[in-house]
Amino acid sequence: MSDTFIPDIKLDEVYDTVDILSKKGYWSILDTMLLDLAFRVWRVDIDILMGYLTATLPVKDKIPAREYLLSECKRMRRETFWDGIE
Fold first, then answer.
1. Helix-helix angle 6-24:46-55, to 10 degrees
2. Quick one: which of 3, 8, 38, 52 has the fewest CB in 10 Å?
C-alpha cells in the first residue's frame, strides 16, 4: 500500500470512531478525545483535526471540548478555513 492512502485510512478511522461513539451516546469519551487533541494541535496532522471537527459538527452542542479544540486550531494553526466548521 502506498503512503498516499494513509491519510485516507486515518480519516476513515476518525469518522468511524466519531460515528460509533455518537450513536452510543458516549459524549464524555468524545469530549476527552477532543480535549486531548486540543493539547496536541501542533503535533496532529491538519487533516485529522479537520476530520474530527467536521465529524463532530452535527453534535457540537454535546461535546464542550470541541469549541476549545476549534479555538486552539485557530490560535495555533492560522489557516483560514477553520471558520467553515464552526
1. 30
2. 3
Q: Can you tell me the distance from the alpha carbon of 7 to that of 29, in angstroms, rounded to the nearest whole number?
A: 23
| Cα–Cα distance measured from residue 80 to residue 65, given in angstroms and rounded to the nearest whole number | 21
CA distance linking residue 37 with residue 31, whole number of Å: 10
63: left (phi over 0), alpha (psi -120 to 50) or beta: beta
List the Cα angle 40/45/51 in 5-degree steps: 100
Q: Which pTM value belongs to this model?
A: 0.85
pLDDT digits (tens, 9 = 90+) for 19-72: 999 999 999 999 999 999 999 999 998 889 999 999 999 999 999 999 999 999
Angle at alpha carbon of residue 5, lines to 30 and 80, rounded to 5°: 60
Q: For the chain, which residues make up each domain, given as ranges?
A: 3-85
